[in-house]
Every structure is written in structure tokens, then in C-alpha cells.
User: Fold these one by one.
Assistant:
Number 1:
Amino acid sequence: MANSFVKGIVIKQSAYGDGHRILSIFGEGTGIIKAISYGAGKSKSSNAASSQVLCYGTFSLAANGGRLMSVKGADITDSFYPISCDIKKLALVSYLGDITYEILGENNADDNILGLYLNTLYALAYRDADIKKAKAVYELRLMSMGGYMPALDKCVECGSDEVHAFDLLKGGAVCKVCGAGAVKVNKAVVDAIRYITGCDNKRMLSFEASEQMIDYLNKIAQGYVSAQLDKKFKSLDYYNTILLS
Ligand SMILES: [Zn+2]
């Protein structure tokens, strides 16, 4: 059977059998697909170098009779090497891969989210983007693109124009009366979330914010991801541990 070619990036990999790897490749026009890379766990294998997380290029895949395709070869054009040298950035992209997989699942093409992912890697690797800023922006944009756009114009509970807090579970702004227990937000925070979720991928990190604001956006963004997806991510715990160490 003819090989098929997928332009994409390895967002996760796991060990499989004796010296093999299963890759999650986020591809253009394909979404996230899983493929077996035979022998990739063995250092002498020609597949080893192209089976690492963050390898980006064109993968040649072939059906092998099972549920998963197998990787026949790859033409790698970038591996975002500077990220691999920074344990904090590496921990962050592992988490970003996890939440992206959670939102999209497999075989669900979304080139907008792929663009978001690649732009974020580019900014972290080559523009030395602030890691916390990149994280909050990614979380908020991923959620918005994945169908969880936060509602910010008025209280999602009663419709009041008074915006006092952000309710992570209800997915938007709430007033003082409805907002007991929600995360307080002022106009600057709401404006920042509005900018982040509304601009295009190329402008997404082009805004000024204090460190305090970035920390606050992180708190909201990661809480929002966790509440909406109803899931805790070990890779987030790991990232937070690394960040504080
Ligand atoms: Zn209300």
C-alpha cells in the first residue's frame, strides 16, 4: 500500500513493546494521529532522531494491518531545539500537548489550533517569550478555539452588566451577587482576556502586562482549563513544581 505523507509535529511519545515508540503527531489537515515508530527506542535506529517530542516535518506513514499506521520515515525541518535545553519550557510544552490532546482527541483536524501550537513553540524557542505569559495565552486561546470561549460581556447567571468575577465552571463573567466563590476580576483583567481570545495567532503575545497580571491570568486560565475539561493534569503539577524549584 502507498505511503501517506503528513506534515506535522510530534506532541507526545510513549514507549511501546521492545524498543518501539508510539508517536502522537499533530498534523496539518489530519489533527492528532497516533503512529508506531518501530525501533525508535534504539539509539542506532534511523527512526530514533525523528521520533522525539517537538520534531516537526513531513512524516511518511503506512498502514500495517493494525489500528495504527507505522512511521516509515521523516523529513524533519525543525525540532525547536532551544526548548529541549530548558527544563521549564519542556515541562510547559508537555502540559500544552496534554491539554491539546484532551480538547481535540484523535483524528479531528484543526489547523487553527495547530497554528497556535506551532506559534507558541516558535515564540518559546526563538523569541525567548515569557514562559508564564505563553502558558496563559495558550490555555485561553486553546479553550476559545476548542469551543469554550469565555463569555465576558455580562453576568452569565443573571445578565447584569456589572462584571465582578470570573466563574471557572460557568465559563464567564459573573456579578457580585452571583459571583460568591468565583475569581475576582477587574476591567484590566477582562480586557486582557478579551484581547488574548480575540486577536490572531501572530499578535497573541504582543500585549503589555505586569508580572502580577500574568500571574493572575495564569491562575484563571489553568483553573478554567481544569474546570471546563473536568480534569487534573499531572504535567501541570510537574510544571508548577519545576517553576517553583
Ligand atoms: Zn449576576
Note: The mean pLDDT is 94.
Number 2:
Amino acid sequence: MAGSAIIRVKAIAIAANLTAPSPFMRSRRFLGDLALEEQWTPQITAKPTGKRILIVGAGPSGLSCAHHLALMGHTVEIHEAGPVAGGMMHFGIPSYRLPRNVLDGETARIERMGVKIVLNHKVEDIVAEKQNGKFDAVFVAVGAHLSKKTDIPARDAGKILDAVSFLKDVEMGNAPKMGRRVAIYGGGNTAMDAARVAMRLGHEPLIIYRRDRAHMPAHEFEADEALEEGVKIHWLRTIKSIDQTTVTVEVMEIDDKGRPKPTGQLETLEANDLILALGQDTDTAFLQKVPGVQFKADGTVIVSEQMMTRAAGLFAGGDMVPSERTVTIGVGHGKKAARNIDAYLRGEGYAKPGKKDLATFDKLHLWFYTNVEQRPQGHVELQKRRTSFDEVVQGLTEKEAAFEAKRCLSCGNCFECDGCYGACPEDAINKLGVGKRYEYNYDLCTGCAVCFEQCPCHAITMIPEPAPV
Ligand SMILES: Cc1cc2nc3c(=O)[nH]c(=O)nc-3n(C[C@H](O)[C@H](O)[C@H](O)COP(=O)(O)OP(=O)(O)OC[C@H]3O[C@@H](n4cnc5c(N)ncnc54)[C@H](O)[C@@H]3O)c2cc1C
């Protein structure tokens, strides 16, 4: 059976963006875990195309693009600056949210599909690299790794670090020496992760953020989990200055447009070191010399709807293009770019299939389904969380996965309940066998709509017959 590569990583990423993961996501995670355990490798049925594609960066976007291009029969080579594949999934997202054996397993699967990953190879001149390697197209996904800075008056201060370097150093086994209390400046996921990692290293982390909880960029669940673990969060505070053992902050207010406004009131917090988690910029300087490539003022690269830069055959995606910055988006960009690169190499345009109608709640027959309460997914015990990098959110057993799968409403998609087959008074519906659904005999069908009316998931649509000419 062919398992979709990076399915589990994507499942984690999507689940990470939801406060209540859907039954679909939970079951996908189970399948992803099983795929790793049993080493499933997708079978490539496409004929080799003889086309060579260079991918720059082995983060989620580059890996996803490689996976899809390999399935289409292309030869793919990834050039990665770092010592391992994974990008921010390896050096940003901590292992208690994305275990490294999972990440490595997903990468190994992509390599088993024939993708070549060249590590410790920073691309400086993309035009030369393309020519020398006889590549037909290039996908660039180098992420955003330059930490944003701010000027804070520091007198005789302890360490000031940036969050991405801190997380990377910890991941490489070089955790910096810091004092007991560590302040983290920022309100995004990176700030939450830096604080939770500092907690696991034995420090007392406190987050300082200029707005309130309702306006923080971090996911709700990340802030909840950080608070549960004992991280202190000082909302509505900006840092004015720091010294050896204290941080002076100014209390802020939120105005009616949700912007923080200074009040002039100062407070002192105890902290030995400061970690800045203020976001990242992308390092696209190496693309400046490529004729045609255009940039936004923040350094992100402008791409078309087809993910192509304004240089023909040079595509880009993930954190380095203007978009939301998540693994899910990066993986989606990789897939979209692969489809468009494939079409470009064939001298065609990729036509996106039309979307199916939305099957909204009012179109479903909810009585058909099992009505059960949502169950919280297993979490590692709190005390262990504070001191170890074990994965916090646990996977599902086969029984739990089957239960979650049964909760799925399968909206708009036939799941072969046989309702239409049983309801048709004219015997106009034939079963085609498991997984093959049904065949409708329109010579026998009278258009009574019984099948349509009973369908629990709205997989059947009634279309008016054309009026006789
Ligand atoms: C602390 C932290 C926590 C996060 N948590 C989440 C989360 O919970 N859920 C979520 O969805 N997202 C999360 N994100 C965001 C997510 O990690 C990124 O959006 C995603 O990794 C971007 O993917 P990418 O492939 O574009 O770039 P990256 O993952 O950054 O990968 C880019 C790769 O390109 C390589 N590279 C760079 N320059 C070159 C060059 N010149 N030549 C060759 N290789 C090069 C880099 O070494 C890197 O491996 C988090 C980010 C951080 C920092």
C-alpha cells in the first residue's frame, strides 16, 4: 500500500493549527505513524520523463515539492545548506512537538523514492548551479532564518540571544549557559517554544509581550500548553532596558484598533538573560543577481499564481514568498509548484480541477452518524513535560483511530453506506464492490430522488434534465 510521504508531518502541522483536531486529522496521524512503522514507500507509476529539477532547501516546502515531482517521474536533486534535512521542522519546531525519528523517517521515505539530497551545500549562484547540473527547472524554498532585532538599552546586561539561534543551538546539543530566570520577548509560536525549551533545560522562563492574549500571534493551544507547564506570561508590556538581573518594562494599553499604547508606567521584572523572538526575515540576497526576479520591500520573492518567479523556470515557495508562514502552507506550496513545474516542462499550463459544491451541515443527515463527545487526545503527564523532550501530544491506537474515523461525517464524499442502494424502488443502482462505489442505470431511474433524500453525506446531486429541444 502506498502511504503519502510527509503525511504525518503535515498531520502534525495541521493539528498544530487547530484547537480541536478533526477526526480526519487524528486518523491521518495514525496512518502516518503506521506508514513509518511499516516503511511504506509510494510506488512511482509514471514513466521517467528525463527532466531534471533542482530544489534549493530541504525544509517542508522543498521536501514536498520533491515528493510530488518524483511521483510524476522527474529526476529531483535537493541542495541543502544545513547538515540535515527538515529546515525549521528540525531546527525550529522542538522535538516535543515533532519527534526527530518521525522527521528523519519521512525524509528517508522521500530518498527511497529516488530523490537525491545533497547536504552542507549552500547555493550562492543559482544560474551557474542550474547550468552546471543541467537542470530543466528550479524550485527555491530557503525559508526565513534571519532573526529580527530591536534596540534595547542594555547596561552591563546578561546574554541577549535570538530565539531561532537558541533553538538551533539546543537542537545541536550546544545549549547556551544562562541564568536561572530567562525572559523571552515576543508573543508568537517561536516565543512559546523558546520558553518551553528553556523550561525543559531547567530555567524559569517568563514571556514579555506588548499586546494582550486576544491579540497574540501564537496559536491558542501553544500558549495554553506553555502556561500549563509553568511559563509565566506578562501581557501588555514592552521592554525599555535591561541590566544584569532585571528587565525594566513599560505597561501598555490596547486601543480600540487593537494596537498597544504606552502608559508611561514602569515595572521591574527579574531576569538574567533575554531571548528575542520577534520574527524572521528571509535571506534572498543570492537571488538578487538573477535577471527578472522581483522582491517585496521585506525581501520576500514575488511569485505568480503558478508559484513561478518572474524568471522563467525558476519557482519559489514556503516562508520566502509573501504568505502565511506554516509547515502546512509550505507543504502546499511545494505540491502546487510541482504541478506547475511539471506543466511548464511539458509546455502546458496546469488546470486546477474545479471544486465540488460545499456539503454544509444543512445538507447532511446528522441523525445517521454516531453522536459521541469529542475526546481529548492523550498528552504526556505534566511533570514529565517540564523536564523532557518527549512528544507532548500522543498518537492513537488502532482502536482509537477506528473510533475517530467513525466520527468523520465524510461530507460530500460517498462512504458506501448502501443507503441509496437499499432505498431505490426501481433497482436502478448497482454495487460495484468495495471502494468502487455504485453505478446508476438512468434507463431505469425515474428521478424520484429517494436516493438523494436519504444520502447522509450529500454525495448525490440531482441535476435537472435538459429540456427537450
Ligand atoms: C520555533 C518555530 C516554531 C514553529 N512552529 C510551527 C508549528 O507548530 N506549525 C507550523 O505549521 N509551523 C510552525 N513554524 C513555521 C514553520 O517551521 C515554517 O513555516 C516552515 O518550516 C517553512 O518551510 P520552508 O520549507 O519554507 O523553509 P524552512 O523550513 O526554513 O527550510 C528552508 C531550508 O533551506 C535551507 N537553505 C537556506 N538557504 C539556503 C541556500 N542558499 N542554499 C541551500 N539551502 C538553503 C535551510 O538550511 C533550510 O533547511 C514554526 C517556526 C519556528 C521558527
Note: The longest helix spans residues 327-345.
Number 3:
Amino acid sequence: MQAYLQAENDGLPIREFGPWVAEKLDYLKRYINIFETSMHDKPWRRRCYIDLFAGCGKCYVPASGRVYLGSPLLSLTASHPFTDYFFVDSNRGNIDALQRRCSVSPVYDRVRCLLGDSNLLVHDIVNDILAVDSERIQGKWSSLNLAFLDPDGLELQWQTVAMLAQPYRMDLIIHYPQMGLNRCMGQAFEAEEKTAVDLFFGGTEWRQIYERWKNRPRRFGLHRQLMDYYKERLQDLGYKEAFRDDEVGDEPLIRNAKKRAPLYRLLFASKHPLGREFWEKVIRRDVYGQGRLL
Ligand SMILES: C[S@@+](CC[C@H](N)C(=O)[O-])C[C@H]1O[C@@H](n2cnc3c(N)ncnc32)[C@H](O)[C@@H]1O
């Protein structure tokens, strides 16, 4: 049964990914480690981990034959576990497999596996957090929360991010779907109705950025501008720590292993400078040990 929580095949459904999945999971694992090591003994009333696109709990990379613990199981097996876990996936097979894997954990009573659309279920999760935060508990701080938002493409809606911003402390690691946007933006720009791109950015203002970029003779930097726009909106939600002060940016780019084509970025936001400090430590090197210039 312990195989359920190990990075190995356990006979339950598992999903195939490209080798780049290792990079994403490594950043997350190290963020969780630094976050929980520093915070587990502070008087937070709860430390919640929220994974809105949780998957089945394991990832298989055919190219290497390796199995990895997926994001929910990385958080569950951390050396200092969170006090509460909210795992959501819209696929029943994924949630069933994830629940079975979690069931052998010594902290299974802290886990809620929810089947459905994250963009709807986020309301229940945030209300649960806010309800406990509003209780009078002497000597305790508010809850400290971390949300990992890792859809396949453009399924994460801005209104979901805005909802997650409601608790006092909620760090965010967001999959910014660069390739998905490249595929959809041309058509979405022309569309009169609301598109997945509009839902992702929470409006149509992105279309102006896209239009300015499209009309430039040398077209560079579209995603820098779009991510800055997204981060400005995060700042409006209270994420004072959405930006670095220089131009380098701090969103690791995950690329396709063979063609090196950009797939997605990991965008970080915190309301507290310590969150940013942790993230900058984490992204100083990638899973291959390569350093980044910061
Ligand atoms: C990239 S995978 C997540 C991988 C996971 N983070 C891991 O590390 O193993 C994206 C997941 O989101 C789920 N999904 C897609 N749209 C969703 C939605 N609207 N609500 C909830 N889950 C969704 C898919 O079923 C899929 O399992």
C-alpha cells in the first residue's frame, strides 16, 4: 500500500507527461519545502494547500521510464505536512485514483478530494478558509495558504484567481499557458463572443496589447507584456509582491525537451515579501542544477 505514496508504479491510473514535468514538480517541491519548513511552527491557525487541477497524483514520463509524485502527493508527503488539503479535478478517474493514493497517508483526515470544475468549487474552498479565519481564536494568526494552479491549457479563469485572493495570506503558483495562448489568441482576438482567453485574463483588455504587438514590424515580447498586465491585475488584488524590481522577470519558462519550444511559465505571487524571497531562492536553479541569472 505504501507504493501509493512512492514515486513508482502502483497499479492505479497514471498519466503520461513529457520530461519537462520534472522541472515544474521540482520547483513546486522546493517551494513547499521552504514554505513549510519556515512556517510550520508559527501560530497560523491553519496552513492550507489548494491544488485546483490536481490530476491523479502521479506522472509517468515514457521517455525516461520514470514515475514522479504529482503536485498533490508532493504536498501530502512533505516533511512538514500542511494542516488542510483541498484537491480538485474535473475527471472522476483522476479523483478516484488520487483519493485511493491519499488514503494510506497518516494525514489522510486532512485531505478533501473534490470532483468538479475548479472555477466553481473554488467558492466552497475559499468560504471554508474564510469561515475559520473569522473565528475568534486567541493567540493564533490567520490561515496561511498556498495554491498551485496547474491546468492543461486555458482552463484557469481570472475570477478563480480573484476568489483565491480573498484570504489574508494566499501564495499563488500559476501555470501561465504560453503555448495555449499562442494557439488561441489569433482567433480569440477576432471573436465577438467571450472566449477562453478573455476568461483567462478576466476581460478583453489583453486584446489591445495583442493588437499593438501584432502591428509592430518586429514582434517580440508579447508574453512579457501580457504577464506584466496579469501581474498588475494581481497587484490590484493585494499581491504587492507580484513584481520584481528589475526587468529579468521571475517566471521560469518550461520548454519542450526536444524542440525547446516554450510551453508555459510558472508565475508566482505573494502578498508578503517573504513569499517572494522564498520563490527567488527556489528559482535560482532548475531541476538540472542550471543556475538562473537573478
Ligand atoms: C496538467 S494536469 C495537472 C497535473 C498535476 N498538477 C500534477 O502535478 O500531477 C491538469 C489537470 O486539470 C484537470 N482539469 C482540467 N480542467 C479542469 C477544471 N475546469 N476543473 C478541475 N480540473 C480540471 C485535468 O483533468 C487534469 O488532471
Note: The mean pLDDT is 94.
